[in-house]
Amino acid sequence: MDMTDYETSGFGMGTIIEQRIAASNSNEGERICHRAFEVIRQLEQKMSRFIPGSFISRLNSSDGETAVKMDRDTFHVLKSAGRYYARSGGAFDITAAPLTALWRNCINQKDLPSPNTIQALRPAVSGAGVILNEKDGSARIGRHQSVDLGGIGKGYAADMVLKAYKAQGVTSACINLGGNVHTLGKKTNGESWMIGLQNPRSTRGDFIAVFAISDRSAVTSGDYEKYFESGGKRFHHIIDPGTGYPASSGLMSATVLSGSSMEADALSTAVFVSGLERGMELIEKSPGAEGVVITEEKKVFITKGIKDCFVARSDIPDYQFAFYN
């Protein structure tokens, strides 16, 4: 059967969602993509801290003593977030939600928060405060704590969309949830999916390199998406839970490739916060994960496992490329 590419876009989880799948006709493509959007909307209703009545909103509104029953998806993501918190030494922490909310408003208003405000929020930031009960699927957080799954939820959603694709017989697809890219198989012409590596100091769509991937996800965390500048310094949206301030790790971006988009999502944040050495060590200790980091000195370090699928542009002299170790 001849297959053609069906493409569509929509909005969900606070971002633009683009889908491209192989389908026998447009009706089939529309049906499959509609189902994918439904999967994403259902997960958003469960996990968004901005939707009243979601499982996460209920947890954040709890008194710090009462456990709140979660559904299977939300419990799984909370449990996974706990693993990444431990593996990253706290660099990935969903309880940084109060700090994330503070800096989100500051970026929108282009105004710095006071040090006292930041210090007042820091005691509530500790991933160890998220207590999960495997027996009844409930969760509890400490008093004054709140959680935000923004650094892992889109990745999980991408994984669930690929699961839905496969259940409907799709063998070739690519979904992009606001920069969280996940691929299934290869393109209809038999070639791998080409994913661009954004130049962090140029306009959107100006790539310094591309990845050729299939059955993998690629997620980037960078200081160039949401930020403002004050006193010659860039204040972005990726918060270091240990300091309460935007991460100052010497990196401009961190990209992680993995068969799990949830893992790539969480690890890209953790690597960006951790910096070059600790970040690369974290990738190397994650089976199946690969990565690329770009330092503030415009040095691009690549893990050796993707040397055969990574192609750098030769016309950008500002950047220096090297394999890490």
CATH architectural category of the domain at 192-323: Roll
The main pleated sheet reads as: 9 strands, mixed
CATH class of the domain at 192-323: Alpha Beta
Percent range for β-strand residues: 25-35%
Low-confidence stretches: none
pLDDT averaged residue by residue: 96
Give the class from helix and strand content and strand pairing: alpha+beta
Helical content class? 25-40%
Cα Rg: 20 Å
The CATH topology assignment of the domain at 192-323 is T-fold
Task: Categorize the overall geometry.
Answer: globular
Name of the CATH superfamily of the domain at 192-323: ApbE-like domains
Helix-strand topology string: EEHHEHHHEEHEEEEEEEEHHEEEE
Strand tally, please? 17
Gap from first CA to last CA: 46 Å
Strand order of the largest sheet: 1-2-6-7-10-13-14-15-17
Number of helical regions = 8
EC number: 2.7.1.180
Organism: Ethanoligenens harbinense (strain DSM 18485 / JCM 12961 / CGMCC 1.5033 / YUAN-3)
Protein name: FAD:protein FMN transferase
Keywords: FAD, Flavoprotein, Lipoprotein, Magnesium, Metal-binding, Transferase
Structure explained in plain terms:
Helix content is 31%, strand content 27%. The chain is built from eight helices and 17 strands. Strands 1-2-6-7-10-13-14-15-17 form a nine-stranded mixed β-sheet. A three-stranded antiparallel β-sheet has the order 3-5-4. A hairpin with a 2-residue loop joins strand 6 and strand 7. Helix 1 runs antiparallel to helix 6, helix 6 packs antiparallel against helix 7 and helix 7 packs antiparallel against helix 8. The termini are far apart.
